[in-house]
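can u pls check wat happens w/ cytidine-5'-monophosphate
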Amino acid sequence: MAVKSSAIGTRRPLTIAIDGPAGAGKSTVARQVARALEYTYIDTGAMYRALAWTVHHNGVPTDDVDAVVTVADELDVRLMPGDTDEFTTRVFVGDDEVTESIRTPAISQLTSALSTIPGVRVRMVDAQRRMGLGGGVVMEGRDIGTVVLPSADLKVFLTASPERRAKRRQAELAERGIAIPYDTLLREIVERDTRDASRDVAPMVPAADAHILDSDPYTASEVVQQIVNWHEEALARG
Ligand code: C5P
């Protein structure tokens, strides 16, 4: 798998892992933390989504594990910082820009299903570890603190109630002209959480040494500030 990502800045000392369920606000927060610290932001969910998009786009049978793993092997995905806050990352598969098409509810569900395949995870984790090697990254996903970067300098597990997450998703989709009923989104979020948290390989659980942060009572900027403070403490600890 070939993955490239562009650095937002040049200061590269620590690695920050931000994990948590869908819709907890991880992307917004992780991107803003990366901006504040001039670190590289890596959206690992976009990599899994790019795989699902490619499988779907090429008509690969989704139950053919070997074929899906071959797609993962050959995947050429590029993550670039977006120009605006509308999309946190611009995503390309080969020459195709898939930034918007990987965010549909159908691709979300397919992504969650394909990400349970061990051969897919091995390839993703390997590529993500290489991206984290130099430090100076804020990597966002489900298994970053537990599997991808177990020795990350700072680990955050960001949660929020399913209701708040469903509302946030509905607003995000509405901004892009996609109207989905709240109940459908809530059901999908709960389904995706259950699948992500109960899969055998790299289930979504907080690392033992993660800061667990429930974002419900806070604004995004307050959450960002808290993580920046923890980063300063981690820097001070050396
Ligand atoms: O973060 P996002 O919602 O874009 O992730 C889409 C899906 O990709 C998740 O529901 C999960 O199944 C999978 N994923 C994963 N491990 C990661 C990141 C995402 O399994 N590190």
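The mean pLDDT is 90.
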